[in-house]
Amino acid sequence: MANRQITLIRRPIGMIDGTTTSIVDAPMPICGPDESLIKVGTLSIDPTIRTWMNDAPGYLPPIGIGDVIRSGGAGVVIESNSERYQVGDVVLGVTGWQEWALASESNRFTVLPNGLGLELATVMNVLGTTGLTAYFGLLDVGEFKAGDVVLVSGAAGATGSVVGQIARARGAAKVVGIAGGAEKCDEVVEYYGFDECLDYREAGLTHRIREACPTGVDLYFDNVGGSVLDAALANIAMYARIVMCGAISQYNATERGPGVANTSMLISRRGRMRGFIVFDFASRYAEAHAELAAMVLDGRIVHREHLVDGLEHAPDALNLLFTGGNHGKTLVVVDASIRLD
Description:
Elements: E1 2-8, E2 21-27, E3 36-44, H1 48-52, E4 72-80, E5 90-94, E6 100-103, E7 110-111, H2 120-126, H3 129-141, E8 149-153, H4 158-169, E9 174-179, H5 182-190, E10 196-199, H6 205-212, E11 217-222, H7 226-233, E12 236-244, H8 265-268, E13 272-275, H9 285-297, E14 305-309, H10 314-323, E15 329-333
């Protein structure tokens, strides 16, 4: 039996296309000592995958030419030579874009408990990397406080939508989103419960943030970077916190745009801007999982998953994140039979 994989064959310039990746049939992985063989069921499609395709330094090394595209995913343990995993366990970790993966001491997976009452897609969304990023980014990095005015870019996305809902549930004075297009903005307000949502494609974003947040923005959660970040900085309150989570506006850029001009506001407003990577909080994932699961089950967090069928469509699914063609968390279903009990 072969292991279908998607590999990187050329570093992209701008959006990925048919010259960027290739589908290959590789030999099945062999389960060695202290390893477990995982049949991949679902892939997590995240903007950071695009950054790993570049030959540039980052918190993880670039994907090598000829290597499997790195990504998170979920699957079921089929064979195990490790005390960590039992045959039949549903696990979450770094699978890559392929049908079969190996768990090892250097590539550990999280065993998902049965009885959560949640679908696997929901767990991969709200309890997965994006939900954990929202949780720790807002509460720890952003030091959220009840009564804060919170502004979130990428508010219709998997991370931004959860950020706003946690802030609302924890007593924010106001939660304002930024998204692209009227449809996405309506979704942010009507489905995710934000107080207001601003379309960044319309002119005058700086002024419209000021109208929505007349007392200033206490906490800005940035998923976008670029001109949207600049507009937010122009409107920060005293002692504001800016959480630097992502810069999706720049991931496909073929040339460097104008710099951010309003950083001096951090001086006059005594604000701070801090970046983070969710892996920094790995020792506390269980804490976040417990609270996030409870919030989903009691309705404080609502969610959407955008499912794309077929491993071969993973490159198209990644592009959806940059064209706005997805709604909620984008997942690629490799094997629909793998699910949580």
